[in-house]
């Protein structure tokens, strides 16, 4: 069995996508939470600045889609890719849509307004699952971190409404794609279900989410969640988590902190 080490941000829905894939396949792995030190380390390991990064026997694989593709090669069963070529193409197309359109919009839609009205509340949310030192360091310069974060993710006041429309459009597409089995492609759980549910999890906050936001939510977050509470895609997300999100397959009782 290969040694698997995951560098991750607990709160990130793209990182949740990879954690779920590892757990779905019951692959023992070690998780290391990266905080403010991740930028030079990620660049050194992969030549890019995003997490998650999965190390497989020391070899770094970046990007959630590439990581899942590698996990399918390493551990074909239980499969996340449909065996039928046409079904696989549909599943991968939905994964790509969720990655490139929905996931980024969710980030802006739920956190953007909070960053502009209450930066410390946004920092509290982003440091969920991190050691207390992360909040202290980032929280020492809330305005500076806000500037860094919104520029990095191309969030501004003028685009938040557009991103929220994009989220709703994406949820409409997901709801329309759900078949009689309750899945997006065919009659079983695939990478399409996993990706769509993981990337909607910051809004849905399902009970099985490993790193939920602290309660009570900031009023701006709660107001936004409430506006979508009855959308069928959000109810679908909660059900997919209930049926398919089991316990972590990490080594030991908790993720490692570095």
3D structure, described in words:
The protein is an alpha/beta fold and 258 residues long. The chain folds into two domains: 4-80, Glutaredoxin; 85-244, Glutathione S-transferase Yfyf (Class Pi), Chain A, domain 2. The chain has eleven helices and five strands; from the N terminus they run βαβαββαααααααααβ. It has helices at 13-24, 38-46, 64-74, 85-117, 119-126, 132-139, 142-152, 157-177, 191-204, 219-228, 232-244, and strands at residues 4-8, 30-33, 53-56, 59-62, 256-257. Strands 4-3-1-2-5 form a five-stranded mixed β-sheet, sandwiched between helices. Strand 1, helix 1 (13-24) and strand 2 form a beta-alpha-beta unit. The longest helix has 33 residues, at 85-117. It starts with a strand and ends with a strand.
List the helices and strands and how they pair.
Layout: E1 4-8, H1 13-24, E2 30-33, H2 38-46, E3 53-56, E4 59-62, H3 64-74, H4 85-117, H5 119-126, H6 132-139, H7 142-152, H8 157-177, H9 191-204, H10 219-228, H11 232-244, E5 256-257
Parallel strand pairs: 1-2, 2-5
Antiparallel strand pairs: 1-3, 3-4
Helix pairs in contact: 1-3, 1-9, 4-5, 4-8, 4-9, 4-10, 8-11, 9-11
């Amino acid at each position: 069995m290969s040694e698997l080490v995951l560098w991750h941000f607990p709160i990130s829905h793209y990182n949740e996508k990879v954690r779920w894939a590892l757990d779905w396949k019951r692959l023992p792995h070690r998780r290391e939470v990266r905080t403010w030190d991740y930028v030079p380390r990620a660049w050194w390991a992969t030549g890019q600045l995003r997490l998650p990064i999965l190390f497989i026997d020391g070899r770094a694989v970046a990007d959630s889609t590439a990581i899942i593709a590698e996990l399918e090669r390493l551990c074909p069963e239980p499969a996340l890719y449909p065996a039928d070529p046409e079904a696989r193409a549909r599943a991968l197309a939905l994964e790509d849509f969720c990655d490139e359109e929905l996931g980024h919009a969710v980030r802006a839609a739920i956190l953007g307004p909070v960053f502009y009205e209450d930066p410390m509340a946004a920092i509290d949310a982003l440091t969920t699952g991190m050691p207390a030192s992360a909040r202290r360091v980032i929280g020492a310069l809330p305005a500076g971190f806000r500037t860094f974060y919104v520029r990095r993710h191309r969030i501004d006041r003028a685009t938040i409404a557009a991103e929220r429309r994009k989220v709703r459009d994406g949820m409409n597409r997901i709801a329309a794609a759900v078949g009689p089995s309750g899945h997006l492609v065919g009659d079983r759980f695939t990478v399409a279900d996993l990706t769509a549910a993981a990337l909607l999890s910051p809004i849905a906050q399902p009970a099985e989410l490993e790193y939920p936001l602290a309660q009570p939510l900031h009023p701006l977050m709660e107001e936004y969640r409430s506006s979508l509470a009855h959308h069928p895609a959000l109810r679908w997300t909660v059900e997919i988590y209930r049926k398919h999100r089991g316990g972590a397959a990490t080594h030991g009782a908790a993720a490692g902190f570095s």
